[in-house]
Amino acid sequence: MFTPQKKRFCLVADSGEGDNLSSAFDKALLNAKVGNYNLIKITSIIPPKAIQTNKITLPVGSTLTIAYDSFTSKKQGEVISSVVAIGIPKNKKNQGIIVKTSGFQEKDTLVEQLKKELVESFNNRSLELEQILTKGIEHTVINCGSVFSGVALF
Amino acid sequence: MFTPQKKRFCLVADSGEGDNLSSAFDKALLNAKVGNYNLIKITSIIPPKAIQTNKITLPVGSTLTIAYDSFTSKKQGEVISSVVAIGIPKNKKNQGIIVKTSGFQEKDTLVEQLKKELVESFNNRSLELEQILTKGIEHTVINCGSVFSGVALF
Amino acid sequence: MFTPQKKRFCLVADSGEGDNLSSAFDKALLNAKVGNYNLIKITSIIPPKAIQTNKITLPVGSTLTIAYDSFTSKKQGEVISSVVAIGIPKNKKNQGIIVKTSGFQEKDTLVEQLKKELVESFNNRSLELEQILTKGIEHTVINCGSVFSGVALF
């Protein structure tokens, strides 16, 4: 058995352009400063008392657990966005909740949607919501564009 | 290198209703008692000699490796189900096998399908199948419904 | 915090035939010698100084982090392929990059596509590409066929 609770979290979001979907996604990851880790997708909980940091300080090639969403499109001129949001509980002994979404919308539209989701998630758990952190990216596709947002836990 | 074998497994399954797909899925996870973990999706092996437990005893916010399947629908009045099954080998030195499925079917239909899959999986490995454990959930969609089933390893 | 860098990597690829998609995929995993692990999907980085090995020596039932792709089809007589490629950097202090793809193409077509992707990935990182390793499988569907390729890190 090995189930450590992560101690730190970091919100990331950025976009990338490339010749194809794979390259655009790779650039979005690099711009978001997670392109040289082995991402492991997780669901959506910030452990109690985890601390926010603005930098991921792991060695290149490390595995990185991260709740993330992304969207990639070749529709030139279209707006694409990706947003993550974290609900911080009033009682710091409780967990935070991560929600995320992406698509052909403006960033602000997605942020509003996620705020509603967080209110529901906190209601579902009978927790009191104190604060919402968001991080997102909006991008107008030039050739082939990708948007990425996530919350890394480490 | 770090590759621990998990020692315990726990079957879970439940459903949730919400205003939207995200909230319904969140409630299904909470009802299945895994909604406050960071789920990491795995494939399908029960390590030899792992022990079944009926409760997951990790701290909130822990990462939890789990083989799972889910299905979410807005088709009001439709039946949706999600089922996991584990094949237990006759020789306890061997591994168990997890299979899972979800969709617009009744639970019993999915259980029968999974039993056939387990027979094939055991044949593929030349192992003798002693017993099949199943856990599933069947739900009739009210507004927006979600079903979830899984086998957590920890 | 627990973020070990993996020390070894192993390329795998193989195919399987079955009565249904699930069984075909299971056989492909078994033929590729990863069918008795709990696969955890990762993205795409070979840690600096990791060593290639041709055998995965973990106990049955272990979790195995692996970048992989697969494709399964019931279109009898059709060719399906799955390929992974690794770009090895000239400077061994740098990371390697994994790319992968699958589909209704011949293996050689996918290999050429991945080579182009690696050139872009290395350009994106301003790294010098020394060598490309590839592993792939091509399969003509009989009844229900599956192809799988991956790079395991452990």
Characterise this structure:
Three copies of one chain form a homotrimer. Chain A has 154 residues and is of the alpha+beta class. The first copy, chain A, has a single domain (8-153), classed as Pyruvoyl-Dependent Histidine Decarboxylase, subunit B (Pyruvoyl-Dependent Histidine Decarboxylase, Chain B, 3-Layer(bba) Sandwich). Chain A is 19% helix and 45% strand. Chain A contains two helices and nine strands, in the order E-H-E-E-E-E-E-E-H-E-E. In chain A, strand 6 (79-89) and strand 7 form a beta hairpin. The longest helix of chain A is centred in the C-terminal third of the chain and has 18 residues, at 107-124. The two termini of chain A are 18 Å apart. The model of chain A has no long low-confidence stretch (mean pLDDT 95). Chains in contact: A-B, A-C, B-C. The A-B interface holds A 1-6, 40-48, 50, 65, 67, 94-95, 99, 117, 120-121, 124-125, 153 and B 2, 4, 6-8, 18-20, 22-23, 26-27, 29-30, 35-41, 58-64, 154.
Just give the CATH class of chain A: Alpha Beta
Low-confidence stretches of chain A: none
CATH fold title of chain A: Pyruvoyl-Dependent Histidine Decarboxylase, Chain B
Please give the most extensive interface between any two protein chains, plus how many residues each contributes: A-B, 27 and 29 residues
What gyration radius of chain A follows from the Cα positions, in whole Å?
A: 16 Å
Instruction: Please estimate the helix content of chain A.
Output: 10-25%
Helix/sheet category of chain A: alpha+beta
Determine the CATH superfamily of chain A: Pyruvoyl-Dependent Histidine Decarboxylase, subunit B
Proper CATH architecture of chain A: 3-Layer(bba) Sandwich
Q: Which strand-content bin applies to the residues of chain A?
A: 35-45%
Give me the number of helical elements of chain A. Answer: 2
Helix-strand topology string of chain A: EHEEEEEEHEE
Query: Biggest sheet of chain A, open or closed, and with what strands and sense?
Result: 5 strands, mixed
Shape of chain A: flat
Oligomer: homotrimer
- The average pLDDT score of chain A comes to 95
Q: Going across the biggest sheet of chain A, name each strand in turn.
A: 2-5-9-1-4
- Count every beta strand of chain A, where a strand is a DSSP E run of 2 or more residues: 9
Number of domains of chain A: 1
Q: Span from first to last CA of chain A?
A: 18 Å
Cofactor (chains A, B, C): pyruvate
Family (chains A, B, C): Belongs to the pyruvoyl-dependent arginine decarboxylase family.
Protein name (chains A, B, C): Pyruvoyl-dependent arginine decarboxylase AaxB
GO molecular function (chains A, B, C): arginine decarboxylase activity
